[in-house]
């Protein structure tokens, strides 16, 4: 197995961009997203990702109006 | 599965309200321009409205047109720089109220540009006034008892106005679900490809929520689009490669 193939895809969140609209929470097919108690610098509530439920389908990336989610290879 | 990264054309975070559909359309448009290799050859034309906020955040070249006249300016740019990908990005109040004449005549002359019209049924930036696209009975700040169709007319369906003209491509999408957003991406890609192969005028209308001015939660806005707005503005491709697809 090469080193590259060991990398796994993960959903990476850019919390500072979030405006807390909740579109990702409404659309997530596995209900892996929820509102957390923390807020970002703009004062919007953060979206918490449950890695165990997440199937990395990237629907949150598709619906997010504020570019919070990316599907990235993380070593 | 491939990576899904944020397009480099989105040089800054957007400035739209929470839940606004413009952000999704911006990302989809950036992805299409990058995938087609047109990021350096794209010129956008903006007039007035919430869409103008993207001038600071979207990394293509822009021309600021007078209110409503984005289509006329885009036509001028395309005629002198035919190698560029020229598009307009407007809301419904801008393109279909003040700029109706310019939008319509660009289609009547079958000018080789792509128009992206984000339809949220109101004037968003000025505080939610009634637009030509407001639905009958819709409450806005200038129709607090609901739009009276007997007094102000029926909502303007721009695709019905254009589909008998000799245009290249007409489609209507919506950003209320992930599935429809993927279709919007396909429509925008086809529209821009139509322009780049000289296929004539292409227009993509996109139904978008405006939770701030509709005074609804995002969930209610999305339900409203699915249950009510789509009935007046059906989705799909109406003209493709100059041929009616719904006839």
From TrEMBL, chain A:
The keyword Isomerase does not apply. Keywords: Iron, Iron-sulfur, Metal-binding. Residues 9-38, 45-74 form the 4Fe-4S ferredoxin-type domain. It holds the Pfam family Fer4_7. InterPro entries: 4Fe4S_Fe-S-bd, 4Fe4S_Fe_S_CS, Polyferredoxin-like_ET. Gene3D superfamilies: 3.30.70.20. GO terms for molecular function: iron-sulfur cluster binding; metal ion binding. Signal peptide: none annotated. This is 2-oxoglutarate ferredoxin oxidoreductase subunit delta. It comes from Desulforhopalus singaporensis.
TrEMBL record, chain B:
Keywords: Oxidoreductase. The keyword Membrane does not apply. It comes from the Bacteria. Residues 57-184 form the Thiamine pyrophosphate enzyme TPP-binding domain. GO terms for molecular function: oxidoreductase activity, acting on the aldehyde or oxo group of donors, iron-sulfur protein as acceptor; thiamine pyrophosphate binding. One of its GO terms (biological process) is cellular respiration. The keyword Oxidoreductase applies. Signal peptide: none annotated. Pfam families: TPP_enzyme_C. This is 2-oxoglutarate ferredoxin oxidoreductase subunit beta.
């Amino acid at each position: 197995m090469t080193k590259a193939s060991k990398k796994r895809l993960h959903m990476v969140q850019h919390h500072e961009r979030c405006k807390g609209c909740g579109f990702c929470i409404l659309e997530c097919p596995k209900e892996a997203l929820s509102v957390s108690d923390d807020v970002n610098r703009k004062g919007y509530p953060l979206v918490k990702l449950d890695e165990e439920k997440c199937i990395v389908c990237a629907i949150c990336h598709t619906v997010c109006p504020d570019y919070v989610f990316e599907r990235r290879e993380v070593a | 599965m491939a990576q899904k990264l944020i397009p480099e054309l989105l040089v800054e975070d957007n400035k739209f309200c929470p839940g606004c559909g413009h952000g999704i359309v911006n990302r989809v448009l950036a992805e299409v321009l990058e995938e087609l290799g047109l990021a350096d050859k794209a010129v956008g034309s903006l007039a007035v409205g919430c869409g103008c906020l993207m001038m600071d955040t979207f990394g293509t070249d822009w021309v600021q047109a007078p209110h409503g006249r984005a289509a006329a300016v885009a036509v001028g740019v395309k005629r002198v720089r035919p190698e560029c990908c020229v598009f307009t990005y407007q809301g419904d109040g801008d393109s279909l109220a003040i700029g109706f004449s310019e939008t319509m005549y660009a289609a009547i002359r079958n000018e080789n540009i792509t128009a992206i019209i984000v339809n949220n049924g109101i004037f968003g930036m000025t505080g939610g006034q009634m637009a030509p696209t407001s639905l009958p009975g819709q409450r806005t700040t200038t129709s607090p008892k609901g739009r009276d169709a007997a007094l102000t007319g029926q909502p303007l369906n721009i695709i019905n106005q254009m589909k008998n003209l000799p245009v290249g491509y007409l489609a209507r999408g919506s950003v209320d679900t992930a599935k429809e957003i993927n279709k919007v991406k396909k429509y925008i890609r086809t529209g821009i490809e139509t322009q780049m192969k000289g296929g004539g005028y292409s227009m993509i209308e996109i139904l978008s929520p405006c939770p701030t001015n509709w005074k609804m939660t995002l969930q209610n806005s999305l339900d409203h689009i699915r249950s009510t707005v789509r009935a007046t503005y059906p989705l799909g491709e109406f003209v493709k490669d100059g041929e009616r697809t719904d006839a």
